[in-house]
Design goal:
By secondary structure, the chain is mostly helical. It is 60% helix and 0% strand. The chain is built from 15 helices and no strands.
Length: 325
């Protein structure tokens, strides 16, 4: 260890190296904080909350040799620790419960990713596993539900489900994911290299698109069912209420479906024709001729088509006097 003057201040070898630099600049360490200040700082750092007056008093009166260790263990063992630390990571991941853009649609299941991050900190998950699960959890551990939920990191992009240019949306989403991975895991704003070789970091435009290629076919599917036995109380309550609704409205829904079925193909055709030219190229292409981009576009289309919008587009087509309506 370095030879220092205030050797009594040194408690660990690391302290000696820090003290050496301080003394080299004619500085002295700050005085130790009193116990009341210490527990307030430690609790704020670990939990983001102030300790209660009772907790402060108990710590100030605890004269056992491992009082500080016990405090640290208590703070780390609390669920509040994961909640506090997760906030920092969720900021990096740009966590939000809605999708942004014009409609700012709610993402009702995004809380599962939030809870995954909290639980990862509280369970001391190895950081390398934490990273791998978020980038490629569905590929590395396809049977692990937590690993699939972790990929919500990639699905946090701003999204406009009503976009009529699905090819543009594909590129915007792939770009957003690539930039996010660079900023979070490489600590570099690699998005600059999308248009030119990076002027500061040694990342070329070619390397940028090589990285983007890994995420080019990523397709978010929020309809993936959760495993039986892992439902939350909210899930179970919703399932029970949904079962009642389905049973009560089955005759009405059957009648509605019969009406829509009569004009389904016309409504779908009208709906698909509203997309821009490059999107329609993929939408109307036979499935046996689809390439990677065509599969992405049609996956995206399928995610937004439902009975209600088919019916609404039949109505719009009828107002325009289109044949067959």
């Amino acid at each position: 260890m370095p030879d220092v003057q205030l050797s009594k201040w040194v408690r660990t070898p690391i302290d000696a190296f820090i003290l050496e630099k301080l003394e080299a600049h004619g500085l002295k360490p700050a005085a130790d904080s009193d116990r009341g200040a210490f527990i307030r700082r430690a609790t704020l750092d670990a939990w983001g909350l102030l300790p209660t007056p009772q907790e402060v008093e108990e710590f100030e009166n605890d004269r056992s040799p491992d009082a500080y260790e016990k405090l640290a263990d208590r703070l780390l063992a609390s669920p509040h620790f994961g909640e506090r630390q997760a906030r920092r990571w969720l900021d990096l991941a740009r966590y939000a419960d809605s999708a942004g853009f014009q409609n700012d649609q709610t993402r009702p299941n995004n809380w599962r990713y939030r809870d995954y991050v909290i639980n990862s900190f509280n369970s001391d998950k190895p950081f390398d596993v934490f990273i791998k699960e978020q980038i490629a959890g569905d590929e590395l551990w396809p049977d692990n539900q937590d690993a699939q939920i972790a990929t919500g990191f990639l699905a946090g992009y701003p999204d406009n489900s009503n976009s009529r240019d699905l090819v543009q949306r594909h590129y915007q989403i792939a770009t957003d994911i690539t930039d996010l991975v660079g900023e979070t895991f490489l600590a570099s704003t690699i998005g600059c290299a999308r248009c030119h070789n990076h002027k500061v970091d040694k990342i070329s435009q070619k390397e940028y698109f090589e990285l983007q290629a890994y995420f080019s076919n990523v397709a978010f599917n929020e309809r993936t069912p959760i495993k039986e036995g892992t439902e939350s109380d909210w899930d179970r309550s919703f399932a029970q209420q949904q079962a009642v609704y389905q049973d009560t409205t089955k005759d009405i829904r059957a009648a509605q479906k019969a009406i829509v079925d009569e004009f389904r193909e016309i409504g779908l055709k009208y709906y698909k024709e509203r997309y821009l030219t490059d999107s329609r190229d993929a939408i109307f292409k036979p499935e046996n001729q689809w390439g990677a981009l065509d599969r992405w576009v049609n996956h995206r289309l399928k995610a937004v088509v439902n009975e209600n919008n088919i019916a609404s587009y039949v109505y719009e087509a009828s107002k325009k006097g289109l044949p067959g309506v």
